[in-house]
Structures are given as structure tokens and as C-alpha cells.
Design a protein that fits this description.
Helices cover 6% and strands 41% of the residues. By secondary structure, the protein is mainly beta. The chain binds dTDP-4-keto-6-deoxyglucose.
Length: 179
């Protein structure tokens, strides 16, 4: 199991060790002791599972504190372009984004701490699963529009499939930090 600390502080990728044999393969998708020893000590209280057809874009989402959620995200099948945006006002990378390919074959997963907006686009039919450090609270939900002109995120897909709810998310406002 390999852990990679990425440019935006607190965002950590985990690449599991896959054990192949004549039956197929096995890997640990979560291990509290190993994750805690590599910068992800949080406990998780809710698991989520979503299926997306190719071209579906979900996000960018976050929950306001005190309902903020850290997320350990991965794809169980398929492939997704995962995007995180640093919304922490005191962070040296405030307003910056980072993109990752989550691939079921690789089994890689990403820890996205509280303070980030998170979204992904399904590059093929994808089952997206993730563990959350806090429970969902509808009233605490918010986000940033996927095509916000200031962020200029390149999703790599023309005309993504976006929910009506996500289409009307607010734009990024650097003058009104959220975390
Ligand atoms: C998030 C959530 C939603 N729901 C219900 C609410 C709706 O009736 C339905 C679909 O919700 P939504 O359209 O918000 O689902 P996504 O667009 O996949 O949202 C997620 O997608 C992005 C990528 C994220 O990072 C968030 O974790 C999460 O917001 O599930 C629940 O019952 N519990 C939950 O935890």
C-alpha cells in the first residue's frame, strides 16, 4: 500500500497492493491503522455508492462546517476524473485545483479533507464509492458550479451530464472564503 502526499496539503492518494493469483486478485481497500500512520487518522461514519453513466459530472460539492466531510473516494468499476478545489482561506493553495484519474483497475483512492470542493466526471460507466468522516446533512450542502469561469476546470468532456441542482450552484467567490 503506497501513500502519496499531493500538492494541495492534506490531499493524499493511496495505491493499494494488489495480490494476484489464479483466482483473480485481492487488495485491502481500507485499513485504519495503515491510513492513520500515513496522514489519514480520521474515522469514517458513512459509506456512499453512486453509479454514473459515461459523461456524468457530479459536483463540485461540500458541506459547510460543522458538517464538513472528509472523503475517501475511489471507483469500484470504471474510471473517473476527480477534481478537488482548496477552499481553506488560510491555505497557501487557496482557490487552487488538482485533478486525479481514479481507475478501478489500479484501485487508487484519494483522501479529500474537509475544506475542499469535490467533484468528478465519469470517463466510462463508473461505480463511485466513498467513505465520509461526517454524516450527510442536506441543509449544510453547497458547492461551486462545475464550469465556474474563474476556476476554468478542464473536465475533458464536451457537454457533460449535470443535474439541475448542480447547474445552478454558485460561482467561486475568493472574497467570501467558506472554510
Ligand atoms: C450526498 C447524499 C445524497 N443523498 C440523497 C439526496 C438525493 O436525493 C440523492 C442524490 O444526491 P446528490 O444528487 O447530491 O448526489 P451526488 O450528486 O452524487 O452528490 C455527491 O457527489 C459529489 C461527488 C460529492 O462529493 C458529494 O459527496 C455528494 O454531494 O441522494 C443521501 O441520501 N445521502 C447523501 O449522503
Amino acid at each position: 500500500m503506497e501513500f502519496i502526499k499531493h500538492r494541495l496539503s492534506g490531499v493524499i492518494e493511496c495505491i493499494p497492493t494488489k495480490y494476484h493469483d489464479e483466482r483473480g486478485f485481492f487488495y485491502e481497500s481500507y485499513n485504519q491503522k495503515r491510513f492513520a500512520a500515513n496522514g489519514i487518522p480520521e474515522d469514517f461514519v458513512q459509506d456512499n455508492y453512486s453509479f454514473s453513466t459515461k459523461g456524468v459530472l457530479r459536483g463540485l460539492h461540500f458541506q459547510h462546517n460543522p458538517n464538513g466531510q472528509g472523503k475517501l473516494v475511489r471507483v469500484m468499476t470504471g474510471k473517473a476524473l476527480d477534481v478537488v478545489v482548496d477552499l481553506r482561506k488560510d491555505s497557501p493553495t487557496f482557490g487552487q485545483q488538482e485533478k486525479f484519474i481514479l481507475d478501478a483497475d489500479k484501485g487508487n483512492m484519494l483522501y479529500v479533507p474537509i475544506g475542499f470542493a469535490h467533484g468528478f466526471i465519469a470517463l466510462e460507466e463508473t461505480i463511485f464509492v466513498y467513505k465520509c468522516t461526517n454524516f450527510w446533512k442536506k441543509e449544510a450542502e453547497s458547492g461551486i458550479r462545475w464550469n465556474d469561469p474563474q476556476l476554468g476546470i478542464e473536465w475533458g468532456v464536451e457537454n457533460p451530464i449535470v443535474s439541475d441542482k448542480d447547474q445552478i450552484l454558485p460561482d467561486f467567490d475568493p472574497n467570501h472564503p467558506i472554510f
